Amino acid sequence: MAEAVLKSKKRSSSGIFNTKWEPLIYLAPFLIGVIIFTLYPFFNIILISFKEGYRQMTGAFQSFGFDNYVHIFTDPYFINALKNTAMYVGFVVPISTALSLFFANLLNQKIKGIGIFQTAFFLPMVTSVTAIGLVWKLMFNDRIGVINAMLGLFGVERIEWLLDPAMNIWALIIYGIWNMMPFTIIILLSGLQNIDPLYYTAAKVDGASSRKQFFRITVPLLAPTIGLTCIINMISASKVFGELFPLFSGRPGTAYNLFTMVYYIYYEFNVARHLGYAAAASIILFIIVFVFTMIQLYVQRRWRYY
Amino acid sequence: MQIKIDHLTKKFPDTTAVDDFTMEFESGKLTALLGPSGCGKSTMLNMLAGILPATDGHIYFDDDDVTDMPPQKRGVGLVFQNYALYPHMTVLENICFPLEIQKVNKAERIEKAKEMAKLVHVDQYLDRKPKELSGGQQQRVAIARALIKTPRLLLLDEPLSNLDARLRIEMREEIRRIQQETKVTTIFVTHDQEEAMSISDSIVLMKDGILMQVDKPQALYDDPNHTFVASFLGNPPINNLEGIINDAGDFELKDHSATIKLNEKKGIKGEEVILGIRPEAITIGPDFNTKAEILERYTMGKEELANIKIGSAELRVYISVDHDCKKGDVIDLVLRNKGVFLFDKASGKRL
Amino acid sequence: MKKIITLLLALVLTISLTACSNSGGTTTEDGKTRVVLWHTYTEDQQAFIDQAVADFNASHEDIEVVVETQALQDFESKVMQAVSTGTGPNLIIHYATEAANYVPDNMVADLGKYVPENFESTVDEGAYKEATSFIDGKLHILPLFTSGPVFFYNKTIYDELGLQAPATWEELVANCETIKAAYPEKYGFAIDGSFTDFGQTLIMQTGNELIDVANKSVTFNTPEVAEQFQWFADAITNEYIMLSPTGQYFSEDFNTENLVSYMGSVAGVPYIQLPEGSDYAVAPVPQVGTVEWTPAWNRGIIVFSADEATEAATAEFALYLASPEVNAEFCKVANYASPYQATRDTETYKSFVADNQALESLRSDIGGSFSAVTGVATVRTQIDEMLSAIATGTKDIQTAINDAEAACNSALQEG
After folding, report:
1. Are strands B303-310 and B259-260 parallel, antiparallel or unpaired?
2. pTM of structure
3. A-interface mutation test, from C370, C394, C396, most A Cβ less than 10 A away
4. Measured between beta carbons, which residues in chain C are less than 8 angstroms from residue A140?
5. Same domain for C336 and C382
6. What is the rounded distance in angstroms from the CA atom of residue B338 to the CA atom of residue B346?
7. Domain that holds residue C390
8. Number of domains in chain B
9. Which of A254, A262, A269 is the best mutation test for C, with the most CBs of C within 10 A?
10. CATH code that applies to domain A67-303
11. Is the peptide bond before C223 cis (omega within 30 degrees of 0)?
12. pLDDT for C43-80, tens place per residue?
């Protein structure tokens, strides 16, 4: 009897099923999707970035080498894009994280009507990007915009945020900071709500001021969450692109002065149709973001307490 | 430091956690706030710490009225049930933290912290993070952190409930030792009567926000003023028999199935009473006045226990090993003087 | 059981692999030739296309036209990707410059084979010239409609100040001066969208060719062009020209009367809503005076190369869309002018134009456009960049022209 059971079991385990390959079969639809839509394009872009004079339609190319990379690094537009993107990331990520931390801390208080404020802060996440861009364009308007009106109260002279090319990047950075905050606040708020309130009680009994509690307890305990938002925000900030369109009427800055990395890729791909340059720029962007993410992860690992 | 609590009341929207509480805590002593869950003992502790404001009444530390004083000005050290050690700081940093807030210079606070660490025996773990310590070690660190600012009052909230049984015994002796070495007035909250009995100088027993009795542990056990106090203390618990005082002034079970002769005739005839008999409060011997049937005998460690039946009432009592009685035997017994209490049934008060 | 699972798996694999290749001209089971049209039209225009296709299919037993609506975003890239992998449409409606991207690789059909011999004489000169401006000189786009910028102005304010619609840019500046004197807060003029069409207009009106197709170079580095750009720079300095719209389009500033006139698409008419008591009027785009020229935005049908039968069937459908009645209806729903005299003679078209004063100001007789050569997209962008650099003063005029010339030439020479 027992033998019969064993036998029948053995029979059913023949072939690929009931082997270590079996899970692979169930995963196949997903894996094939990933291979086709993620891995293939990625490796294809690496390949294209080395093909000089690549033609999308026929797949023909003249030579294989670093020409595309040499070209983009001698292209002033690309250098400008690198500079602008670095500046954008360098200002937007730390400032928006710091401000978000401040607001998340406020939103974490047990105050009547806090729900209204929480909703208000998260509203931008569910609002149309174009609509928001247009509102900001209006706010940045040098004549009737609310930003200049407020600065005017402090005696600041009219700033041509959207007209003066030198001011363009600051307008973009301010808009970017604001844009990044809702998401960051949500993540930080959930991190804050995971901190045991007992730590604050303990600190209060010891007489720690709110400031001291914030810097000695909240910030260190939130460090892993802050690190996470920094990485996510750095990656998304380095892809700054869509923000340009509503602010500068479709131009990359008033006088094409505000190329960003992704705008450069978009331009080379969609307008100039230089696939090789676009691919090379994509790879450079990928490498930069990758390296910075690794550095951040390393720093964060040394930071964390658990 | 002596602590005086004067008509202290704490009301929450739907309950009164502490109800018109008046008492004094002795200076330099270890006092336990004992009571079942939800009796208001933690609320009491939090009011002493200043974390919760009082609804009514006053708290005095010596002569200072601290009722409205913020926690940091009261000079209290607080140890939490789950220790609340800062996970990102080392043991040393944790212990230093209260002094860091007081802006004591670094060398001085480290020296003081090391001293404290030595006192609580964690001086070899100074560079570790809390998660690298055992529960008992974390507890010691928490106590050191509470003591470093030389508080006038040390408060411990259920300090042992997160520890396993063996550590609990070790730590309660440690707490006793530390308290005796530092002589700091200490109040600790617990729901465990054994814990309270074993280490405190005196016990404050609470029920539903009301102070039931304050006394030395043994006095509380030997001389309870209320059936609740008698029932709460003691393991195995006291046997409570309901009945009335008969014409002879003795105790008669409610259903008249048995009468127990009382040594002291305190009750008024016909009064409904509760007779509390501690398990150790009977003596067996021939010709004694009360008959009981042995339902079961069993041994718990070194102790010999038996379930016996007097009339319709079942009791759990200690029986000396010398008595060679077995299940089903009928024995004669008599009540001792000590450990037998008569309470008024309506009020629960001792007669 | 095992067989069923294997079968299911095979099915899933097949579906996931073929899911992305659902179009392309093939013969259907019932022997009809399948023609696939991709478009991005919505609402009325989409309804029109559906109707036209239904009518065409009903009257053609051997052809079945299939319509697929695509998102506007990245439409061009999607088409290019699909066409290069053989899964794309058989035809799209687009600009000649888009067709130019496919010409070097012989991926668009030569429509010369399918149009009547007298085709050149039935279509406007500018439109025909653009449709054959490819490097091989062949007809790679079948003109369908024409649009372009016109000059919108606030008639009430113009009348109040005794001004006339300007025929030349000089007159426009004079008008702006009058307006600025009367209303210092108002702007006299603005250019909707990019500066490409405006810059092209200034260049072409000086008698320039802009692109020398034979030599693969631009020709706008001339003193005449520089002079026009100087005029533009001065107008900006004097705050006659509004550089950036308050909202998305200048029509909004025009509606609030903060802006008195602007150069914008004829299709913008529905967005103009002046306050009560104010009225607007439309005039042709002003001229430099040397050569009469105005930008024309010609859209037409691009037929992708395919097997003979499919290509012929696609061309037949394309010609159906260009036939007078269908073309007139299409122009009507899309608010475009037609490049065909035959269409303009239909009653449908006549009644439609009579209601649209902007279309009358669209001078398709002098309309021109960029040659559809490789690199033209870069030329377009460079002109916008050159003029925005001049407008914001980031470059002096000659530097801006030199930089743009170099960039344009390098792009053109890739072809």
Report:
1. unpaired
2. 0.81
3. C394
4. none
5. no
6. 23
7. 149-295+374-412
8. 2
9. A254
10. 1.10.3720.10
11. no
12. 889 999 999 999 999 999 899 999 999 998 889 889 98
